[in-house]
Each structure stands twice: as C-alpha cells, then as structure tokens.
Amino acid sequence: MAFVKNIVIAGLGGQGIVKASDILADAALRAGFDVKKSELHGMSQRGGSVTSDVRYGERVLSPMVPPGEADVLLVLEETQVAINRPLLAADGVLIGPDIIAPGALRNRKSLNVAMLGALSAVLELPETAWVQAIHANLAEKLHALNEQSFALGRDAAVKGAVGQ
Amino acid sequence: MTERLLLSGDEAVALGALHAGVRLGTGYPGTPSTEILEEFDRLGGRAQWSPNEKVALEVGIGSAFGGARTLVTMKHVGLNVAADALFTATYTDVEGGLVIVSADDPGMASSQNEQDNRHFARAAGAPMLEPSCSQEAYDFTRLAFDLSERWKIPVILRLTTRICHAKTVITPQPPVQGLREPSFRRDIPARVMIPAFAKPAHHRLRAKLAAIAEWNEAQGPLRIDEPERAADSPAKAGSPQGRQGRAPLGIVASGVAAVHAREAAPDARQLTIGLTWPLPLERIRAFADGVDRLLVIEEGDPLLVESLRGAGIGAEGKPEMYRFGELNVARVRRIIAGDRTPEPAPPVGKPPELCPGCSHRGVFEVLRDLDCIVAGDIGCYTLGVLPPFSAMDTCVCMGASIGVGLGLRHILPEEQARRVVSVIGDSTFVHSGLTGLAEMVYNPPPTGHVVLIVDNGTTAMTGQQEHPGTGRALDRSPTEQIRFEVVAEAMGVQNIHIVDAPRSGQTGAQQLEQLLRTLLAKSETSLVIAREPCVLAAPKIRLYEKAAAELRQPSSCAADIAD
Ligand SMILES: Cc1ncc(C[n+]2csc(CCOP(=O)(O)OP(=O)(O)O)c2C)c(N)n1
Ligand code: SF4
C-alpha cells in the first residue's frame, strides 16, 4: 500500500486530545494529503481515557490505526503511556509528556499544542500548515499563547533529539 | 482547486442535507448521531429536537407529506422508539423526500446495546444506504433524497460510530436548485392507512422495492476494486486482464467494514455495496462467479451473508466471535485467515466517571445510604451504578426506570417494595417517562411508589442538548417550558416535592434523605424533582438565560401595550 503515516494521540478526557488531533489532521490536509482521523467520544463526563487516531498519506483507507502500527504515539498523561504502548510499531516513536519541562508552559491548558510542537519535529509537515491549522481550530485570543507553546514543544523535541 | 473539507460523517450528512434542499431536520439526541442536527442548525438549516424519536419521525412524516425534503436523525435504539411510525410510513407515499438517519454503535462506545439496524430495512421495507466514509455520507445523503422522492418512500441512511465521528476528506457539489415549494396535495388512499387502503399500499411498497432493486442492479452505488498485486506497480490495478481474470479471493462488504477490508486485503477483488437494501443480487452473483473464494466482511449480525446464501450465492461469513464489537483492520485480517484463537485484549483505560462536582453525586450518595432498590435509567446518572455509589439496580432503556420500578413494587414483599425508587433524568423523563407516570397513577402498587427526577437542566450525556423541560429550543432560543411538577399534579400524583440536589457529602443530603424516608414510608404516589444544573453546562445555561432575558425585555413591553 502507498505510504501512510499513523499517529495516535492519547491522554485523559479534558486534556484536549480531540482538539490536538483536529489540528494535526487539518495540518496534514493543508499539506495536500489524504487524511482520516477517528476517536471514540460520546460520554460527556470528564476524566476517562481518550485516544485519537490520525492517518495521512496518498490514500488512507481505514480511519483507525491498527494496533502495533502507530509510527508515533503522543501521550499527554504519564499514566496513559503504558496502556497505549502496544499501539506503537516496533520502530515507532513514543513522545511522552515528560518532554515538556514542568513549569515551562505559561498555561498548562496548552499542553496539547505544545505536544503537537514536539510531534512536528518528527513529521514532515510544513510549518505554515501547522500555523494555519492552529489558527483555524482555536479562538483568536488563544493564537499567540498556543503558537508559543507549539514552538516550545518543537524546540524541546529538537534538543532532545526525539526519534533519532 | 476544488474545495476539500475535512468533515466527520455527521457533518457531511448535515452539509449533504443542506445541499439537498432539506427544509426541516428533526431528531432526538443520541451518540453518535447528535452532531448532525447541531451542524445542520449551525449551517443555517432549520433543525429541532423532538421529545423523542417517535415524535421526531412523525413530524418528519408530516413535513414530507407536505412536500418538503425532511431529515430525521437518531441513534440506533432511537429507531426502536420510532419503529411504530416507520413500519407504516413505508406503506405511504411521501411527497418530499424523507430520510431517516440511524446511527448504529457496534462495540457500544456509548450505548446500552449493539443492535444492528440493517434488520430494520428488511423488516420495515425501507431502502438503506450505507456510506463507508464522509464523502459517501455526503453523496448518499443527497442520493437518499433523490431515491426517496422518485419512489415516494422513506429511505434509511445507516451510519455507524466510525462513520459518524471519523473525519475524512470530502469535496462538496453545488446545492440542488428548483425544488418545488411545499404545498398540500390530498391523496387519501396513499396516506390514510386503514385496512382498505393499507392492503393495496403494501402491494405498492413491494413493487417500489422491486423497482429500486432493479435500479440498484443497473446503476446503484457500487464499487469494484481490483487486486493491487504489487504496491509499486499501480498501473496493473484495474487493468483489463485483472478485470477479466479470476481472483483467488473476493470480498463483499459495506460501510466502514469495506475500508478496513480493503486495507487488510489489498490483493483481493472487492465489491463494496452502497445501497444495501434491496440488494443488487445479480451484480453480486456475477462478482461471485469471478472469484474462487467469496467472503463477506460485515460488522454485526451475519445479515449480508445470509441474504446471499438465501439467493443461492455460496458465500463464506465470519466466525461467530466477530459478531461482537467493531471490526478493524486487524480483525478483518483474522477473519480472512479464519483465525478463531482468542483475540488480544484491548488496552483497558480509565473508565469515565461522574465529573467532580456533578449534581448526581450527592443524590446517589443518599440512595446508597438509604439502601434503596434503584430502578435506574439512561444518562450521565447511570454512572451512579459504579463505586463509590453502587446505587443502581436496573437499567434497560430510556424511560424504563418508572415501569420497572412499578413492576418491582407490585411483586416484591412489602419491606423490599418500600425501598424501590425510580431514578430518571430530566431529558429522559420527557422522552419516555410521562407515560410511566400515567401508569403509576393508574395502577399504583399497594405500597405506592417514588419517582425521582434528577433534573440537571440539560441532556448532559450526549453533550448538553436542550429538551422541552429546559425552555429553550435546539438553537438555544427561548420557547415554552414544560414544568414537571405541573404535569405531575395534573396527572394526579399525590405528593410532589422540588428540592435542590444535595452537594456531595454536604448538608442538603439530610434534607433529601429525610424527604425520601418519609415518602417511602407512605403508601402513596410521589414525585421528587432534585434540581441542580450540570456543572459543565451551568456557565452556558447562565449565558442563554441572560440572552433570553434581554430578548424578553422589549417584547414584554410590546405585549403590555397590546393588552
Ligand atoms: C431511545 C434512545 N434515544 C437516545 C439515547 C441516548 N441517550 C442516552 S441518555 C440520554 C438522555 C440523557 O439526559 P438526561 O436524562 O437529562 O440525563 P443527564 O445525562 O443529563 O444526566 C440520551 C439522549 C438512548 N440511549 N436511547
Ligand atoms: S456532564 Fe454534567 S451531568 Fe454529566 S457527569 Fe458531568 S457534571 Fe454530571
């Protein structure tokens, strides 16, 4: 099958997992790829485990990342790392929340976008696509804060040589 | 460049409906269907929540009889509620297209069962379309209206959770033009289903289905993918030899299972069916003739495979273990391999629980402490079944709390009967609790009964939708509010109390506890309404109320003058 990139974003309800996957999928769309993303949501209540699958490439078929085939597993909450690890491919990259230094973020709510910044260091999506996607998916008053968080996450990943 | 949009299946249906010229969308919230009407409203369409799915469909039937294209949305179990209307609506002639969305939930991400609503198409005689991605959700919505109008028949668009909530890329088409304006045209034999008219109407229905089957054979939405022998020589795919040669494996599939199958078996020849009822059996037969092994990949019940076998097409289905839960690429690979070994357990995450500060918490602490036998219902409050409350003993379907509670009261020994309480949410009460209340008044058990409405001012479970008890319509504009205490009084309930839902572990609990003790000791019928807004919805409710108050200001002046 033609090239498909598989990313799973995991964390707890209320952390903005779905928003993060919306931004990632939108960035891939803007970069000209076919994209599918999927997660199970429905329960309003907060706090349960959430995972969201994003796949992009020339042509994507199933909207779900098959277990053990994620190229990247991005986890926003330490307790969710172990349970989701089986989703990762043998040569896949795990990015955990420890990549963002405690206290580094001006607002902890933008952790999801900071993690996308870290993710951007291992995906080949153009920076403009990311910025446009962040703008399109967040209210204007949040743009500056989230762009900062994104840059912070990206730097952290580059310095930490994630995926090398 | 053509416009490319990344839409969920639900959003794609809403856009498709808008572009198909839908005049009215009705429905009742239910995961995974809820976002369709919300999006249709956001896009500028006219959408409204009904008290339940049956009413939504009835309003839809009327609208379609009046000549308007009409969309009715619900989750799979909603179609059970609407089934009475559906099974006779198919006998009638609709004037404007009538499309019913059934959003099924294989795997029960957020449902009480995983029933397969493809059965309804067969049982009610309704054509059914099943998209496999958002593009098809958009295209099939538009097609459904065309088919519905051409044959004057309600059409079911069946989605599943992974179609509703997955986002995939779509390219929209220009909206339809030149639909006729709604206007009443009398056609008594086609719309009044007394036996004299219903008998010929049933024959007409079967003739319509036969004609639609013929259309499906000739030009129904159906795709054949040729084997992709090698990923690096795509030119071969679909080549004339490929098309004529026999394929070792042929797959027949529909819905999201079709894309899983295509990914799992790129080397198979695959037939993906869009209009899955009535089936294009001759096209399937021709496909079957060109393959050595014919395998049906379907989620849920073995319906498609049984239909093919019934038509004499030798098809192989999946082992029984794959009837349960959703399919995915890994499971389809196992089905193809005939693998019946136990599957690896999926990761067990942290289950959902009532939000911190949720108003249901305090109520369930009281019910637990009183050791009540709780006939429960469906909504966020169903989580009262889990620790630390463990205070729910039954939960079957929406509204069942009242009937089940009454049944227990009738039959249990007195000391147990006196502990039975029916607990029901506000949205659920309007949906299907009113008739339960009538039953309580009409056939009161010897020990009486206590119904407790946990009124948090919203349909929280499905993402905070309005309902007739909130005083706001789908678009949050103010409308008449049904007051439960007034309804209960009119029905003849003997004791009616409104209390604040207690804060978890706080003093309000004593008040509710005392009240319940008193009512449980009486042999009378009682309704307790415990009020406290859902903490997630409360800030928004305050905003809506403020907006409504501002709106009322000038208009109430005008009313004064008019008086
Ligand atoms: C027939 C049917 N329609 C829809 C649903 C989806 N659903 C489950 S509970 C519920 C309503 C919940 O609202 P409410 O009773 O007010 O309780 P809350 O979640 O606010 O606590 C809905 C719409 C369903 N399970 N069955
Ligand atoms: S969404 Fe509202 S009703 Fe549901 S658990 Fe949270 S606070 Fe409670």
Instruction: Please identify the oligomeric state.
Output: heterodimer
Spatial strand arrangement across the major sheet of chain B: 3-2-4-5-7-6-12
Structural class of chain B: alpha/beta
Low-confidence stretches of chain A: none
Please name the defining characteristics of this protein.
heterodimer; A: 164 residues; alpha/beta; Pyruvate-ferredoxin Oxidoreductase, domain 3; five-stranded mixed sheet; 5 helices; 5 strands; 34% helix; globular; B: 563 residues; Rossmann fold; 3 domains; seven-stranded mixed sheet; five-stranded parallel sheet; 22 helices; 18 strands; 16% strand; disordered C terminus; binds thiamine diphosphate; binds iron/sulfur cluster
In short:
With 164 residues, chain A is an alpha/beta fold. Chain A contains five helices and five strands.
What can you see in these coordinates?
The complex is a heterodimer of chains A (about 160) and B (about 575). Chain A has about 160 residues and is an alpha/beta fold. Chain A has five helices and five strands, in the order E-H-E-E-E-H-E-H-H-H. Chain A has helices at about 15-30, 80-85, 110-120, 125-135, 145-160, and strands at about 5-10, 35-40, 50-55, 70-75, 90-95. In chain A, helix 3 crosses helix 5 (about 145-160). In chain B, helix 1 (about 10-20) crosses helix 6 (about 135-150) and helix 11 packs across helix 14. The longest helix of chain B is centred in the middle third of the chain and has 25 residues, at about 195-220. Chain B is globular. The interface of A and B includes residues 1, 13 and 67 of A. Strand 2 of chain A pairs antiparallel with strand 8 (about 165-170) of chain B. Chain A: Keywords: Oxidoreductase, Pyruvate. Chain A: One of its GO terms (molecular function) is oxidoreductase activity, acting on the aldehyde or oxo group of donors. Chain A: InterPro entries: IorB_Oxidoreductase, Pyrv/ketoisovalerate_OxRed_cat, Pyrv_flavodox_OxRed_cen.
